[in-house]
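Sharing a chain and its predicted structure for anyone who wants a worked example. Both blocks are below, sequence first, tokens second.
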Amino acid sequence: MAVKELWLVRHGESVGNVAATRAEIEGLEVIPLDARDADVPLSDTGREQSAALGEWLSDRRATIDAYWASPYLRARETLTLALDASGGETTVLVDERLRDRELGILDLLTRAGVARRHPDEMARRKHLGKFYHRPPGGESWADVALRLRSFLRDALGGPGESVMMVAHDAVVMLLLYVLLPLREEELLAFAGDHTVLNASVTHLVRGDAGWELVEFSGVAHLQREGADVTAHPGSPDVEPA
């Protein structure tokens, strides 16, 4: 049974999101975070957002057939807390191809840190563009799109027709790139004008003509439950002038 409906969820606010935003504001070069990216947990706000997501999910449990999650702790916590709040247990499928984009030598650096410590990478990124620039030891957006194409070949065959995936902002953006589909310039223009908010829901359906975007980064469930809406960038990627 092929999947015909996708609910794409970004994880709730993480302690890494909070630390990165504070470091950018304070002009630090390095984000003060001890945990590796895969082990970064949710913040208190992120846990509240996940519970609010669970209230939204409680009305849809009967219609969602399968749940996928990134192996990163913040994504798994988001889905676990949402499922708990929605009133039931279910099997969660975890796939490493849904993990966040890897930044290599730029990991844990702020924009100021990249500019001061790796000016050559700033210049290389400006030349190659955001989509194809791969930091040493890391991934480009194109690399992430390739592993997502592999994931979708497996996941879109089922189980069920309606699937919920909890992952990261870059993953949500690049799933849109693959599924709609978008050209490089269309993706970058869309990403420049739109933000994948924490614990937001992006909804796609598949018809005869292909996939259609029904809603992007919806957060009405957070506002209804009184949870904060947060818009942290998922990674401190540098935007060269």
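Comments welcome. The two ends are 48 Å apart (CA to CA).
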